[in-house]
Amino acid sequence: MIKKRIIPVVLLKNGQIVQSRLFKRHQVIGSPTAVVERLSNWSSDELIYIDISQHQLYDLSRDDLNQQSFSSIQEIIQQVAFKCHMPLSFGGGIRKIEDIDMRISSGADKVTINSLLYDKPNVVKEGVRKYGSQAIVASIDVKRDESGNFIVFKGGKHPLSVQLQDFVTQIVDLGVGEILLNAIHKDGTASGFDIELINIVVDLVSIPVIALGGAGNWEHFSEVLEKSNASAVAAANIFQHSENSYYKCKEYLAQQSLPVRFSSKLSNQSKNL
Amino acid sequence: MIGIVNYNSGNFTSVFNTINYLGYPLKEVNTSFDFEDCTHIILPGVGTFNYAMEQLDKLNLLVPLKQHILQNKKFFLGICVGMQILAELGNENGNCNGLGWLRGSVEKFNFNGEDLRLPHIGWNTLESIESNVLLHGVNQQDPSFYFVHSYHYYPSDDYSYNIIYSNYGYNFPSLVQHENIFGVQFHPEKSQENGKILLKNFCELV
């Protein structure tokens, strides 16, 4: 039987891992490769890296923390992929087909795209043709406004006039393999997922949907798995807080008899590494 | 020597990194000559059936593959599309001939109306792990591997291969073995501990 995936999202800014709140404030919490070793040891189902750097600047290592420095996103992907024996998706800064080529050839299994969906749908199609649907994940940023309507945003910042339903249908037609559904009004709030939004999108499409935005405790994860047909649940901050949060999350969901990949034997061994 | 065929498949690097991590002597194979000192050949695969066959043809790898695997009986492991093209025929974006080392074809999942999503992406379990040499030592409590595909191998009715199944709507072949030829639909290079165990078992075959 197929398992529901629990996916840590790692945000990169100028070569460092950061925490995010409502897409605005970012706090540096570590180096890009440290997290992968930690999560790989804990049998994470998959990893999504999103590069939110505004400029192509990566060499900002902090000498005081003795952190490794990286000169490019390519170097980060290569280093991460080298240490990672799980599926790896990279997003952010993808503007042309060569950007997709570089990420895949450096060791990413998938790319997560956002602006490209609006700006250059033909490049999305080309990526699908070249690498297959499974390699292209469409990230959709959605915000609920004060009257409860869902507004599609580009790059988390620019509201668009397109209807959510129409937009989702359009991007599925481009041939993407998965949707990463990001409720940006929930980003960093730890107030739970927007189940209504997840259900609207899941019911519209026949490809897997990954729910993101709002995880604050383990019950929030089980709520998504119980009340929607999402294929995966993703979260960023909650997996960075404490040392073995990912393991605890899986343990909780397994105790609730939810279909997640969990083996106490394996995970206990990994936990002690 | 483990040879990993590089024919511009997306997961070449991941497979190479994992075998390297396991500590076996390995090399990149992309010419006929490269096969000579290999005892084991791994054919990674991501993307479409047709593209994989085109690339192997373009790089003139079809003849040496046949010579070293079918005649010299070197151990062979096809991963994902690298498993699918072992079949006689692929049916993705129109018909395309495969290597034809296994009887049968590769076609899309057919759920008969059941509401299941494609691609089949994520961790799925194998129905049994006792009856194939590659699965010795795989975690019994959680025999799961990472899958990403919309098409799978349909063996012809009269096959006599060792097949291990997984379930997505119905049972489909996720591992097949015929003599020295192994194919896995999932990605061992992305399946953490279980994947490493499987690849180690393959590299240890003598």
Give a verbal description of the structure.
The complex is a heterodimer of chains A (273) and B (206). In chain A, helix 8 links the parallel strand 11 and strand 12. An 8-stranded parallel barrel of chain A has the order 1-4-5-6-7-10-11-12, surrounded by 7 helices. The longest helix of chain A is centred in the N-terminal third of the chain and has 11 residues, at 73-83. Chain A has a single domain (5-266), classed as TIM Barrel. Helices cover 36% and strands 23% of the residues of chain A. In chain A, helix 1 (32-41) packs parallel to helix 2 (73-83). With 273 residues, chain A is α/β, with parallel strands linked by helices. Chain B contains 5 helices and 13 strands. Chain B has a single domain, classed as Class I glutamine amidotransferase (GATase) domain (Rossmann fold), CATH 3.40.50. In chain B, strand 12 (170-178) and strand 13 form a beta hairpin. By secondary structure, chain B is α/β, with parallel strands linked by helices. The longest helix of chain B has 12 residues, at 192-203. In chain B, the strands form 3 sheets. In chain B, strands 2-1-3-4-13-12-11 form a 7-stranded mixed sheet. A 4-stranded mixed sheet of chain B has the order 6-5-7-10, covered by helices on one side. The A-B interface holds A 1-5, 40, 43, 45-46, 81-82, 85-87, 104-107, 109, 130-135, 177-178, 206-208, 231-232, 261-266 and B 10-11, 13-14, 17-18, 21, 46-48, 115, 117-125, 139, 141-142, 144, 146-150, 167-168, 187, 189-193, 195-196.
